[in-house]
Write the structure tokens for this entry.
Amino acid sequence: MSAAAPLRYQARPRTGAATLPKNLQIRPTVGPKPVARSRPRLVVSAQQRSTAGRFAFVVVVGGILVGGLVAVLLLHMMAAQDGFRVTALQQRLATLTDQVQEQQQVVAADSAPNALQARADALGMVPTTISAFHNKGNGHAVESPMYVPPPSIVTGKPATAKSGAGAAAAGNSTSSKTSKSGTTSKTGTKSKAGTTSTAGTKQSTHHPHHHTGR
Amino acid sequence: MVTRTAPPPPRGAVHRPTRSAVQRRPVRRRPSARHRLEVVLFVSLIVLSLIGGRLLQLQGLDRSAYAASAQDQQLQTVTLAATRGAITDRDGNPIATSVDARDVVADPEEISDPLAIVDRLAPLLDLNAVTLLRQLSTHSQYALLTRTPVSPSVADSILAMKLPGITTPDTTRRIYPDGTLAANVIGFVNADGQGAGGLEYSYQRTLAGHSGIERYQVGANGEAIPDGRTDTTPAVPGSGLRLTLQRDIQFEAQRQITRQVKVTKSLSGTVIVMNPKNGQILALASAPTFNPNNLARANSKDLGDPAVSVPFEPGSVNKVITMSAGLEDGLVTPDSHFVIPDSYRVAGTPFHDAEIHGTEHLTLTGILAESSNIGAIKVAQRLGPQRFDYYLHAYGFGKPTGVGLPAESGGLLPPRSQWSGTTLATLSFGQGIDVTAMQVASVYSTIADDGIRVNPNIVEGTVDPDHHYVPAPAPSRHRVISVQVATELRNMLEAVTSNEGTAPAARIAGYRVAGKTGTANRYNGHGGYSGAGYTATFVGMVPADNPQLVCEVVLDRPLHNHYGGAVAAPIFHDVMSFALRTLKIPPTFTKPPKAQLKW
């Protein structure tokens, strides 16, 4: 149907009479026929479409799409670049970590006491054996090795076999009859160093659980 | 086509074939289309039912199994090794640590020219060319070329050669920067990186951490798919151990005992340096020892720690328990008088001192200073077996100290019910009982700490993966003897280092030194002591009036001079002097008291 073609408005046929029961139907009255009045025809007017608005819409949408696409591509490219950069940095980090570990091993080996001693020996150094101390009690600096006398020993009279007599002599004569196993040697014939010599049959009588027969 | 058909039956009549007719001419009835359709439908239903059942089985009942199987084919699982925790000394100096490393692995089936690879790898890896060629010529897909993993830089050099069939997978390597330092304490790890000796073994769970898992998608040939699915459960590194050891003192102790073992031709030697206030072990050195970096050259006998695992008869160092028990029970005083004959019988068995002498009149201090066996027996007899047994247990004999090292022995303290008539006598001077060096050091630490026994300990704390330090539980402590008795004992022990005592060689210039020698018969393994030599010992503390350090030296079967005062005391002097300087422990500037040895 053309837009310019007029549309006739057709009156809807009355159907009420046909549908009512007969006793309710109204007979048409006799009289002059109604004069047919001319009614204005309804015409659908064709719309005037604006092609300029549609074009702008297409351009905007297209622009958004293209822009979004470019943005996504850029983001992907940046992500990819970052990914490569992260990978490269991780490899670099791993390499540097390995180098740090290797250097730490070198430092640890060089700072080990045995390595230090070897180097000191090579330089002709010797361990110190002296220290200096400051005595806070008397305020004097003390050269070391300072002399501390060995424990003074009080010995009694030669044994006269009076057990428990409590005859501890007050003399300070230092015993000189023993020859110790240490570095100090004195005249005498004895040699002892706390040796526990279990002589005789003792070995066969004790410690039955572990060393039976000792 | 015209067919003849039978005339229709009359209306109302029913056609019934007679029996005779059926029998006479059997009619072969062909199945109707409907019947065939039913058969086909039935068979189809059966087939469809089977298919449906199988489908139900695959997708329903066995779904998870097949899904897991498919996933296994698609995913490659790799175990991520946890980094083992480091072991450091008390100042944080590393004694054992783990570093990244690479294995060098070959796939011989991918190698077409093994000689070319041997030419390039053998000098780089310091491998024997023949051995390497044999490894590369095997018919396998895996050959580990180096027993010890190589450093990452060496691995990078190998990868840069682009040798076919050669890969360098990641691994870790346990290294001990100081080599033999404290090796008997630290221990070692096996080829799988698991602790197999020393603290590496006893603290395996702490040090090892937990392995992680990485699962990633692979292609048909097993190669990883880039951007494929990856599930990673990261490994949890192990915690580190911070020990109580002081590295320099440990080194000096080890150096001295190694030298002395060699000079005296001893079987072995041990040095323990201990802080009596808290029971911390500052040095625990043994000789001979081993290098955990090179276990292939280690002697298996040297891998343990004799200080805790090899009991010995302590000899005269045990007399301090006898004396302390007598003092604590109020039975004797330092000046108590004793008559010491040349020979003394107990239960019919004669006992002698180490040297032949006439009747002597010694005080209790004199008995200790001159290390008289008979004097110790007499004190023990005043105590009686029950009290003496009590004190032996109170000092920690008969059970391990719990210092934390593996294979620790509790020694052998004969049960009270099995004591013979001479057991009390022999125990009083340290024979007939087996103890470890750690137990003996703990006894003297108790005396040094005014009578309080603090359990020896060697692990100060742990350091978790986030570098948070967690101190170890405080060691147990209990009082064994009173402060007064401990002080009296130290004064008595100071006399041991006098010129009249058995260990003047232990004296240190500027300091007051208290200690005790021991020269005990060694059990020969054949029911006696004959020919087995001696165990030489010296245990002491400095400064005697306020002990800061306890040091014990034990030499097992020295051949050149076997007396504790001659071979062990000098090592005590050297190690203790070094420790005093290192820890900057000043003298106390006091004079030793007079000691009365005889009456």
Remarks:
- The two ends of chain B are 157 Å apart (CA to CA).
- The mean pLDDT of chain B is 90.
- Residues 33-61 of chain B form the longest helix (29 residues).
